[in-house]
Amino acid sequence: MSMTPLTSDELKALAVGLNKLAHNIWWTWDQEAQEIFQELSPRGWQNLYHNAVAVLHEVSDYELRVRLQDQDFARRVEKVLKSFDAYLNDQNTWTHQHAPALLKNPVAYFSAEFGFHETLPIAAGGLGILAGDHAKSASDVGLGFAGISLFYREGYFQQAINQDNWQTEYYTLLNPKNLPIEPVLDAKGEPLVCSVDITMTQVYFQAWRVNVGRNPVYLLDTNRPENPQHFRDLTLRVYGGDSTTRIMQEILLGIGGVRLLRALGVKPSVFHMNEGHAAFLTLELMREMIDEGKSAGEALALTKQQCIFTTHTPVEAGHDRFNAELMDYALHKFCTQIKLPFEDLLGLGRVHPKDAKEPFCMTVLALKASRAANGVSELHGSVSRHMWQSLYPKLPVDQVPIGHITNGIHLMGWMKGPVRRFWRKKLMAKVNEQAGASSGDTTRFLIANPEAHWDKAINAPDFWKQMTDPAFISDEEIWALRYKLRRELIEFARRRLLMQVQRHMEADFIAFEHLLNPDALTIGFARRFATYKRAPLIFQQLENVVKLARDQARPIQFIFAGKAHPRDDDGKRYIQHIIHLSKYSDMQGHLVFIENYDVHVARQMVSGCDVWLNNPRRPLEASGTSGMKAGCHGCLNLSILDGWWREGYDGTNGFAIGEDAHADTVEEQDRVDSANLYKALTEQVIPTFFDRDAQGIPRKWIHMIRRAMATLVPQFSTRRMVKEYTEKYYLTK
Ligand SMILES: *Cc1c(COP(=O)(O)O)cnc(C)c1O
Predict the structure, then answer these.
(1) Which of 5, 264, 288, 612 could form a disulfide with 630 if both were Cys (CB 3.0 to 4.6 A apart)?
(2) In CATH, what class is 484-716?
(3) Confidence at 1, pLDDT banded by 50, 70, 90
């Protein structure tokens, strides 16, 4: 092997390549890429919360050049850059074969939030995470895709628990220079500036581009010197402020988003509204057509042909409603531009257009102005048809035009590092062993495309089918992986808990090095603390649960995390209750609450827990996605048969709480579900987990893990989901 030092041109190319790589979040789902940034500055990597752009800023140009003189390191960088390049330039994607029309004319996907990675905290919860995963998978399958959202320069709030165990919120300013975003520039190299009219004011905005693999996601930002301060702050926070801020943000998102795409010369083949927040985009499309001389009716019909809409929740508060005064105030100038009588405009957002008392509803507008609409699971589709039947008085409920596509997750993005490496090793071992005498499609594919495309192969259903074959992977290997992941989570929790209590100087109430038990059945619950998700449900039977937790032979323990909406005091009381139990009840040492839930905390938890608990008030959990993230790590679901789990559960691949039905009243539901939860835990979960053979292996438990992976992982992925959207909605009119 040649040991000649790299030329300065070669060094420069690698440095430029690394910078480009850091500005494309593709690196977040490539293990080797991640490790390069980590190795450049291990301490910086940790302190800067896994931020590749910031790590590169830590390292001087000189240091980078010197480090790249390490030939082994340089070769690894080169290899990563090559596979990045191959990914970007792949001309043989699923879209090339199945949807070539969507290569040039992209899907314009509007979402008020996008969750990509812990360094860009501009998502409030599942809706944003789903949008991020949708974007990542759209790139993976080669789909033309342009995302639209807002650049919230203070992001979503950070959670700190005070001495009364009460959630407090604080905000940190995001610095664009240290984020994987780039300013969108015009021909002169200046920020491209567009404008929308809000109230009577022309509000200017610029945009930031997040490179998501092959595709851009544009984040609109009103923090421009031309604007008065209150409009500069319009994009300060995710869902910040009251309904006035809300409607203004939505005008920017919908109307501004269309204007940005026009300014960029992007010609979408379809506009996809991820939730009603984006529905004002339909008004802008109508305005354009009315401007060209179409009648209002024609404009609506033509708009309808271009739009599709996904509704995400049956919870009332999830559907924005604005009264006529607010509409008039916020859209005053726009109304003069659209040349549509104000009453007619209001009618577009009403079930009964002439009912002056009915507020304007974004969901109604989205439904009226879309050629297709869907819920996010089978049950949610059906619930939504009932919910919106009044919009279609002539149709029986089962013919209300709202279908469903069940949500998924971006598998590569959610897999924890050691797990990515684990599966890759398994996959490649299989390829080597079978080379020449191959059977499955995955193997054949991999032999033709060695190493480089293992990320595609791992998404193939026939890869996961092998999970049920002990020759492919032994019980011992699975159990060893489970122990490793559980220990990593417990050590993560110990570090976090120590940091949490040091703030209050109450570090003496527990011995942190012994907090949580690496041998105990570890049950996780983490999501937004919306009350319908009933975080403390299990503790309705506190005395019994304490006994279970303190059982020396078969101990169980709980790890909780989650944020309550800043104005949701009931949710905050749930948090307070759980933390209180963790500190002052007999649950102490067997129950912890990790502060500041985010994508990073989520990844630790879904990988390290043995059981993922989900007990929403059915049918309010439209889909849920955190349980899907558990799958590829060998964590089993214990869940109400709501949302995705109603479709995923088959009796052998995890645990159900109760039946495929629910009681009529909230009180009855809570009572029945809590009893069923305790029953499932004591009659199924605990006995199976602790049923060990002579080697100490829980064979039945591991069999369930095998079944869970084989049946759930390929099905509940955004790769499957994006293909379904493409075939069902993006391509067909
Ligand atoms: C996956 C995820 C969610 C969504 O979880 P649900 O179970 O669908 O409520 C919310 N927040 C974060 C940070 C996540 O990673």
Answers:
(1) 612
(2) alpha beta
(3) very low
Ligand 1 centroid from CA 527, angstroms: 5
pLDDT in tens, 441-488: 666 656 555 555 777 788 888 889 989 999 989 999 999 999 999 999
Q: Which of 168, 242, 121, 158 is nearest to 569 (CA)?
A: 168
The 3-class SS string of 267-294 reads CCCEEEEECHHHCHHHHHHHHHHHHCCC
- For ligand 1, the distance from its centroid to the CA atom of residue 130, given in whole angstroms, is 9
The residues facing 310 across adjacent strands are 274, 374
* Nearest-CA residue for atom 3 of ligand 1: 126
Is residue 358 a contact partner of residue 352, using CB atoms and an 8 Å limit? yes
Whether the per-residue pLDDT at 518 is higher than 90: the answer is yes
pLDDT at 436 over 80: no
Percent of the chain residues past pLDDT 90, beyond the cut = 88
Ligand 1, atom nearest to 597 Cα:
13
Which one of 315, 595, 620, 625 would you pick to mutate in the ligand 1 pocket, going by the greatest count of ligand atoms within 8 A of its CB?
Answer: 625
d(C-alpha 564, C-alpha 330), whole Å: 29
Residue 224 dihedral angles phi and psi, to the nearest 5°: -120, 145
Separation CA 703–CA 37 (nearest Å): 37
Q: How confident is the model at residue 426 (pLDDT cuts 50, 70, 90)?
A: confident
What pLDDT does 459 receive? 86
Pocket test residue of 118, 122, 129 for ligand 1, highest count of atoms within 8 A of CB: 129
pLDDT of 116-166, one tens digit each?
999 999 999 999 999 999 999 999 999 999 999 999 999 999 999 999 999
Q: How many CA atoms lie within 13 A of 275 on its CB side?
A: 23
Backbone angles phi, psi at 134, to 5 degrees: -60, -45
Mutate to test the pocket of ligand 1, among 626, 638, 645 (most ligand atoms within 8 A of CB): 626
Give the closest residue (by CA) to ligand 1 atom 9.
Answer: 527
- Tell me the mean pLDDT in the region 292-298: 97
Domain boundaries, the chain: 8-88, 94-407+724-728, 411-459, 484-716
Centre of ligand 1 from the C-alpha of residue 70, in Å: 41
CATH class of 94-407+724-728: alpha beta
The minimum-distance atom of ligand 1 relative to the CA of 562 is 11
User: What confidence tier does 267 reach under pLDDT thresholds 50, 70, 90?
Assistant: very high
Return the structure tokens found at 360: 């304007």
Give the C-alpha separation, 489 to 603, whole Å: 9
For atom 7 of ligand 1, the residue with the nearest CA is 626
Residue 452: the pLDDT is 59
Ligand 1 binding pocket (C-beta < 6 A) is: 125-126, 129, 527, 597-599, 602, 624-626, 629
pLDDT digits (tens, 9 = 90+) for 163-221: 999 999 999 999 999 999 999 999 999 999 999 999 999 999 999 999 999 999 999 99
- CA–chain centroid gap for 518, Å, is 29
| CA 307 from centre of chain | 23
pTM (2 d.p.): 0.96
Residue carrying structure tokens 């979402």:
111
Q: pLDDT, tens digit, for every residue of 12-35?
A: 999 999 999 999 999 999 999 999
Which atom of ligand 1 approaches the CA of 603 most closely?
15
Please give the distance, rounded to the nearest whole angstrom, from the Cα atom of residue 126 to the centre of ligand 1. Answer: 4
Mean pLDDT, rounded, for 282-294: 97
Cβ pair 241, 205 in contact under 8 A: no
Do 94-407+724-728 and 484-716 agree at the fold level?
yes
> Does the pLDDT at position 6 exceed 60?
yes
Q: What is the per-residue DSSP string for 388-400?
A: TGGG-TTS-GGGS
Closest C-alpha to ligand 1, atom 5 = 626
Separation of alpha carbons 677 and 640, rounded Å: 8
The closest residue, in CA terms, to atom 11 on ligand 1 is 125
